[in-house]
Write a structure and sequence with these properties.
heterodimer, A: Serine Threonine Protein Phosphatase 5, Tetratricopeptide repeat, two-stranded antiparallel ribbon, B: 1024 residues, mainly beta, Immunoglobulin-like, 5-stranded mixed β-sheet
């Protein structure tokens, strides 16, 4: 009896663990694995949605590189938080160098989403779905790839172009920077594909996806930036026939209650008020850092005090411009009833139910932008024609301003740039607008003049801490950001932009 | 020879009298019988020479003496037929009958027991003299008198190359164990713990009752650890638990009670209320003086600071959150029964330790039953089962934002309580002083509990057959269930400006369950044929672990009373599961010829679920040789050499401590909003690397063991060189791949070292003494990472970097080299450009010589080496009559610690309270201070990671002192006084020079943490 029991125990212990290779195959049960994903139409759609999700992250930080760096905004200097010295403040004060962490973050975030675009495109190509299923997916992905490379070349100049997923990590060392012209080739061909594959509008369940109008608008912007004005005019004119209109009220453009309206060409979607994790929180970044519930309506809630409208920006609005009050506030009344003269961006300041979770979408392209681009392009081709002035004045009239007529070509160009500054204020257009319309030296002179102005009388108090000599000194080479130092350290095939070491 | 006289009336000497006060009980016996005298001589059995200092005791009585220079003794016995217990270090103890009036002659023979001692090794055991690899056996005899509640504590300072450090003073905390240095840049560096043959992982846990431990063996070189394959790289700690000795029947009780506190000398001195107000006042005035070049008026100082001497309160927040007499108690009951078919050892332990920080504590309850039965002479069965339950009240204590850090920097001008007795609920947060919740209130009102239940079962069956074969099958299982709950009520303020309560309350709850099952089948064949002695072992091992978790958080509670998820306005919950598995085939051959020439080889082939599909299996061979020189005939004349052995070993081990799913390209959810509704999405989470394989270490070890002078002096020396290859490293890859890092097998790290252990035992008069010194010199060097220029940099600009670079040790401290303080504008102008520098800030070195000290890492260089040149332990102990004592010293020499908390406590902008030494800061060229504290006029060039915060942390520490007294007349009850961390000799300004808060490849950073207390305890143990 006893021996039998023993024998049994031995047998059990052997059988329990005498298992083969299968015993060693473990996969993470909480997540999907690449090997068995990208198979079905639904999985492809999820892969595309994932790419949109990464766009949210890029948009969350975009203000740093497109507004904060310009004359539009500044910061409320915080002497107690010096942690941002080498990162955010380096951008504001034009002390960017190859080690500036936020430039590194920018560079990384673009390639980190490009891998998903490239992988999904490759899997789509290999998939056996109908073309009618594949095309809209491809169109959305190619639009985003074009958007990213277009931004990358404006930020960094020559960049690495990668359009396929890598098989092994080693391949990542085989790439080097491509001339801007070649990057443009990819951008244009991707956008042409997007225009051809995307619908003018989506059904109600898919509102928010990229449309043909968005692709045309971006392509128009690419041509405008390349100074190919005829192509720009032709492309942007196509957008005017797609049914977009300006909303009568400027405030409505940003109202979360009226999302995805007729003026919206491409918005990044966010949703607050729930547990879905898809909220935005722009006002929490932009609200003054000592506002304590006076700007964001939650007890004790302050913002981070970044991207504060500069004195120069506030002065840029004409008398009677209805957009000023919507776009910014020059200060706020504290809960103790005191007026605090710390300005802040108001465009994304809307009531929301849950602390930290706002419902605001981010406008990437809207029809007013298209109209102003068209005005700018026509002016370059054939001077300030009635058509060009018409587009400009359409935008001005909604803002409650008188039309501008009989301007010369140069004055008209300036007027459009000024109009873009106030119409599209704090929507991340300023940096590229300045770069597009000014040579590096002109831009340096322009920004240094602004810098001197800001230094002579800062928008907000600096708590007695003076500026340093290197603050607000812009050199022409700084029109391009440096390639992040650690990327060059890893791969010495990579060259650095001129002027940086 | 002096006769020792004892009579009922006068036998109590002065010393006895004082002891009598304490040990009244013991006294009642001892002196009730008539006395008779016994005399004799003790001689060495071989040389017939008299032995002085030999202890002679009467068995069962308190009487004892020791022999004089001529080997003679004389003592009083209470009965006509006494038995004398004659013992002497290095000799076998003898019991001889004695009758009064008949002189006895006792022959003692040298004791070789320590060489015959059987040592537990991986999947088996071996006689100590046959060991040919680097194995340290913790001398349980030497540490048994020291009260210890934590298993790792038993290893402190006991073996060379086994560095056991107490990183923090958290009650019940596990100590940090590292064997022969940090050998990997990517995987963990903790050893494998094997308890009763069950490989538990890289931690012994907090649940093992130290009183249950029978033996601890530390396997250090690859030859000894290769049998554990991919888990052997960092060394292996083998622990066995007690079982009943044959025919033993005993019941033992141990009790230990003590108090803990952080002595004033180990606390950091911050400014008091008046000093801080004065400091703030001066800083306002100095700013005006510097920036406006004029003398300020008193009105320009904010009202709060205008008259510092009138500051109404002064609170030492650290003092407020420390418990000055935090009690602990530890009770053990052990029942051993070695009679009958089933031998059993049952034990119960209860430990309750309050923390040196208020509202923290650890309470543990353990039970264990170790059963062993010999069914017949061929079959044995055994089952060990141990259950533990602990309850911990904890706090977040690491870093400046946690409780210890904030108690340092909180505004000292604030009282703990308001006048009505309620808490002053927001400290600072105005007048430019950073705000925090009241540290005392936070400790009292935050709820933070962790419960852990742990059940371990080891079952085995052993069958001996065909005379020389043994088959052993064992099944081990462990089930851990842990629960955590944290609630932060709305009454607690936030950290920072304008964060007064009420704040949003939050709750966090979690539950974790881990099941680990392992089974080993081992067949052994052992045979001796003439001078040939050999054994062969082959086996098979499998193990699987699965962990599951359920975590949830709740925000916004209608009140602070009902603290459950159901009351939260918002709830966020998640669950997860992860597992790994391992299969291995093992084999070992031992061969000994004439007890002189020793050979051993092992092999393990192991597969792991953690590696890429193309690389699941790894091979781990090892071999070792030994030569017992002392057995050679040419050594016959060297009688003073009891044992001399030379040995050498080589082996390959691995390290799989890299997490579970590294080789897979997993997808992470990344969702979006479309059509106003949720749209689920997925993005790639990692670069798939199907080739991901084994990190391997090659280790060579040369050793020498010597026992001299009849085993009184022993000496061990080791040399080793360990090279770790193909480390599982998150290497940086160009981000165009879509990822900044990927795991790869890359890089090389070398550890070379020398280890020495020296022990001596002697008797001087009636005092038996033993002394043990061990010291280890480890040199660590990164040979290669990914190409020559690569580096691994962790940390940040304001809180130090640890940088690992080829040619240098792992994790060197990096920052600016601070050369002094600028006194004048001229000095600044003459120095390479430091943008924004003003007089009074640190002067940094332009190390790259480009004329600019840039505000990034370009000019940062090595500023400290966190690896000690030498780590040592020294034990001194002995006994005198019924007294015993034991001192344990540990130390580490020549290494640096970056005291990162000083970036806060010497942050001169007045946002935080600062060190009292900040009074001697730079104020003007005429008043430049102590050269350490910079000006209060700016923030830049003062708190960046720099050499100013680097301190030499060399130290010597009296870790333990225990003095005991055994009352022989009452069941050998032993009472003792013990003190832990009694005396620390160091120049390091922080609480604990052993601090290693970030761990891994970020050694030597002190962010401030739970202080290590000093402990005094009183205990007793008795066995019936």
């Amino acid at each position: 009896m006893k021996h039998k029991t023993v024998l049994l125990a031995v047998l059990i212990s052997f059988t329990l663990f005498s298992c083969g290779e299968d015993f060693l195959n473990k996969t993470d049960p909480t997540r999907l694995v690449e090997g068995n994903f990208y198979q079905t139409e639904q999985q492809m759609e999820q892969a595309v949605n994932g790419v949109y999700s990464q766009l949210q992250d890029i948009i969350r930080n975009q203000w740093q590189y497109n507004e904060f760096i310009t004359d539009n905004t500044t910061l409320h200097f915080n002497p107690s938080d010096r942690g941002q010295g080498p990162s955010l403040e380096a951008i504001e004060f034009w002390q960017i160098n190859p080690s500036t962490s936020n430039i590194n973050n920018l560079y990384n975030s673009y390639y980190q989403t490009l891998v998903n675009i490239n992988t999904t495109l490759a899997k789509l190509e290999a998939a056996s779905f109908e073309e009618s299923v594949k095309k809209p997916f491809e169109g959305q992905l190619k639009f985003l790839r074009a958007y990213y490379y277009f931004n990358l070349l404006q930020y960094f100049g020559d960049v690495i172009v990668i359009t396929e997923p890598l098989e092994t990590p080693e391949q990542a060392w085989e790439y080097s920077r491509q001339p801007v012209a070649q990057v443009y080739e990819l951008v244009e061909s991707d956008l042409a594909d997007a225009v051809a594959s995307l619908p003018v509008s989506w059904d109600s369940e898919n509102v928010g996806r990229i449309t043909k109008g968005a692709a045309l608008s971006l392509l128009g912007k690419v041509y405008l930036t390349k100074k190919e004005y005829n192509e720009a005019v032709a492309t942007l004119r196509e957008v005017t026939s797609l049914g977009y209109e300006l909303l009568p009220s400027y405030a409505d453009v940003f109202d979360p209650q009226k999302k995805n309206h007729i003026e919206s060409v491409f918005d990044v979607q966010f949703q607050g008020g729930n547990e879905l994790g898809e909220w935005s929180d722009f006002i929490y970044t932009f609200a003054p850092r000592e506002s304590v519930g006076a700007v964001i309506n939650f007890p004790g809630q302050s913002g981070a005090g970044w991207n504060i409208p500069s004195r120069d920006m506030i002065a840029a609005y004409e008398e009677g411009d209805l957009r000023k009050e919507v776009s910014l506030k020059e200060g706020y009344t504290s809960l103790e009833g005191e007026w605090v003269p710390v300005p802040f961006i108001n465009k994304y300041n809307h009531p929301h139910a849950i602390r930290g979770r706002t419902d605001d979408n981010w406008p990437v392209i809207r029809y007013a932008d298209v109209l102003l681009m068209l005005a700018e392009a026509i002016n370059e081709v054939s001077g300030p024609t009635t058509e060009a002035a018409g587009y400009l004045n359409q935008v001005r009239s909604r803002a409650g301003l008188d039309p501008l007529n009989n301007l010369g070509k140069d004055a008209f160009r300036e007027a459009v740039l000024q109009e873009r500054r106030v119409e599209l204020a704090f929507e991340n257009h300023r940096w590229f607008d300045l770069k597009r319309t000014k040579s590096p030296q002109e831009l340096a002179d322009f920004l240094n003049a602004y810098g001197d102005f800001e230094k002579s009388n800062p928008t907000t108090s600096r708590s007695g801490i003076p500026f340093t000599a290197a603050d607000f000194v812009f050199e022409p080479h700084e029109v391009l950001f440096p390639i992040p130092a650690n990327q060059i350290l890893i791969n010495n095939n990579l060259t650095q932009n001129e002027g940086y070491k | 020879m002096k006769r020792v006289k004892q009579s009922p009336d006068t036998g109590l000497g002065a010393m006895w009298k004082s002891m009598a006060l304490i040990f009244l009980l013991g006294l009642c016996f001892g002196s009730l019988y008539a006395q008779h005298s016994v005399e004799g001589t003790v001689l060495d059995s071989a040389s017939r020479e008299p032995l002085p200092g030999v202890s002679v005791k009467v068995k069962g009585e308190s009487t004892g003496t020791s022999t004089g220079p001529d080997g003679r003794f004389s003592l009083e016995v209470q009965s006509q037929e006494a038995v004398l217990e004659v013992s002497f270090l290095g000799y076998t103890t003898r019991e001889v009958p004695a009758r009064p009036g008949q002189p006895v002659s006792v022959l003692l023979s040298p004791d070789n027991e320590s060489l015959e001692q059987v040592v537990v090794i991986g999947y088996g055991s071996k006689r100590k003299r046959d060991i040919t690899s680097a194995v340290s056996v913790i001398d349980m005899e030497q540490i048994k008198d020291r009260p210890v509640s934590n298993i790792n504590n038993m290893m402190v300072g006991q073996a060379p190359g086994v560095v056991v450090k107490q990183n923090t003073g958290t009650p019940g905390e596990e100590l940090d164990v590292k064997i022969r240095g940090i050998s990997s840049l990517g995987a963990g560096s903790a050893p494998l713990f094997v308890i009763d043959g069950f490989a538990m992982g890289t931690s012994a846990g907090r649940n093992l009752n130290a009183a249950d431990v029978e033996s601890i063996t530390v396997l250090k070189d690859a030859a000894s650890t290769a049998i554990y394959g991919a888990r052997g790289s960092n060394g292996v700690v083998l622990i066995t638990t007690k079982s009943a000795k044959d025919d033993e029947l005993s019941l033992g009780f141990d009790v230990n009670y003590g108090i803990q506190n952080v002595p004033a000398s180990r606390r950091v001195e911050m400014m008091n209320g008046v000093e801080f107000a004065q400091y703030k006042k001066e800083s306002f005035m100095d700013k005006i003086r510097y920036f406006e070049g004029r003398e300020p008026s008193i009105e320009e100082v904010p009202e709060d600071y205008r008259y510092p001497e009138q500051t109404p309160y002064s609170t030492d927040w650290m003092d407020e959150i420390l418990h000055n007499n935090a009690p602990f108690q530890d009770y053990n009951i052990t029942l051993s029964s070695g009679k009958g078919l089933v031998k059993s050892m049952l034990s119960i332990n209860y430990l309750n330790q309050a923390g040196a920080v208020i509202e923290t504590g650890f309470e543990r309850f353990n039970i264990r039953a170790n059963l062993h039965g010999d069914i017949n002479k061929n079959i044995s069965l055994g089952w060990n089962i141990a259950g533990a339950f602990f309850r911990e009240q904890y706090a977040a204590t690491n870093g400046r934002d946690a409780i210890i850090g904030s108690a340092l920097w909180a505004d000292p001008r604030e009282p703990v309580y308001n006048e009505d007795g309620s808490f002053n609920d927001y400290i600072g947060g105005h007048d430019g002083v950073f705000g925090t919740a009241n540290p005392v209130q936070e400790m009292k009102e935050m709820e933070r509990n962790r419960n852990n239940a742990d059940l371990i079962s080891n079952g085995y069956l052993e069958i001996r057959f065909l005379k020389d074969f043994t088959f052993r099958s064992s099944v081990n299982a462990r089930l851990i269930n842990e629960k955590m709950k944290e609630f932060r009520p709305s009454t607690l303020a936030g950290r920072g400006f304008d964060q007064p309560p009420p704040r949003e309350a939050w709750l966090s709850e979690g539950q974790w369950e881990t099941l680990n099952v392992a089974a080993d089948q081992v067949l052994t064949y052992a045979k001796t044929i003439g001078d040939h002695d050999f054994s062969i072992m082959a086996g098979y091992s499998a193990q699987e672990e699965t962990g599951k978790s359920l975590t949830a958080g709740g925000n916004e509670f209608p009140n602070d009373i009902v603290r459950f998820l159901g009351s939260a306005e918002r709830v966020d919950a998640g669950s997860a599961e992860a597992s790994w598995s391992m299969l291995a085939y093992i084999a070992r051959v031992h061969y000994t010829f004439m007890d002189k020439y020793l050979f051993s080889a092992t092999f393990r082939r192991e597969g792991s679920s953690r590696f890429g599909i193309n690389n699941k299996w790894g091979n781990f061979p090892a071999a070792s040789l030994g030569w017992r020189v002392s057995e050679e005939s040419f050594m016959d004349n060297a009688g003073w050499v009891s044992d001399l052995k030379l040995r050498g070993s080589w082996g390959v081990t691995g390290n799989n401590d890299i997490g579970n799913y590294r080789s897979l390209s997993i997808l992470n959810p990344a969702n979006y909003i479309l059509g106003g509704g949720f749209a689920s999405g997925q993005v790639l989470g990692a670069f798939a690397n199907t080739n991901l394989g084994w990190e391997q270490s090659n280790q060579v070890n040369l050793g020498l063991d010597a026992s001299l002078f009849r085993n009184r002096l022993y000496f061990t020396a080791e040399y080793y060189r360990k090279i770790t290859n193909d480390m599982l490293l998150p290497i940086e890859i160009p981000v165009i791949s879509g990822f900044t890092t990927t795991f790869s097998n890359i890089g090389k790290v070398q550890n070379t070292g020398l280890e020495f252990a020296l022990g001596y035992r002697t008797s001087v008069n009636k005092v038996n003494l033993y002394a043990d010194l061990n010291i280890a010199f480890n040199r660590n060097k990164v040979l290669e990472i990914n190409g020559e220029n690569d580096e691994i940099r962790s940390g940040s600009f304001y809180s130090t970097y640890n940088v690992s670079r080829p040619g240098r040790p792992i994790g060197m401290l990096h920052g600016y080299r601070m050369l002094g303080i600028f006194n004048t504008e001229e000095e600044i102008a003459a120095w390479p450009e430091q943008d924004g520098a003003i007089p009074g800030v640190y002067k940094y070195e332009d190390t790259n010589g480009d004329g600019i000290i840039s505000y990034d890492t370009q000019d940062m260089v090595e500023i400290g080496n966190p690896h000690p040149k030498a780590v040592w332990g020294f034990t001194l102990g002995g006994d005198y009559g019924n007294f015993d004592f034991n001192l344990l010293f540990t130390g580490a020499q020549d290494y640096d610690v970056f005291r990162n908390i000083e970036a806060t406590t010497m942050n001169m902008d007045g946002v935080f309270n600062i060190l009292r030494s900040g009074k001697n800061r730079w104020r003007s060229a005429e008043n430049p201070g102590d050269g350490k504290g910079p000006t209060t006029n700016t923030w830049k060039w003062e708190r960046e990671s720099n050499s100013r915060y680097v301190y030499d942390a060399s130290h010597a520490w009296l870790k333990n002192l225990t003095v005991g007294y055994t009352i022989p007349t009452f069941h050998n009850i032993r009472v003792y006084l013990s003190a832990d961390n009694l005396l620390l000799i160091t120049n390091y300004p922080g609480n604990n020079p052993d601090v290693d808060q970030r761990g891994g490849i970020q050694p030597g950073v002190d962010d401030e943490t739970y202080p290590v207390p000093r402990t005094f305890s009183l205990g007793a143990s008795v066995k019936f």
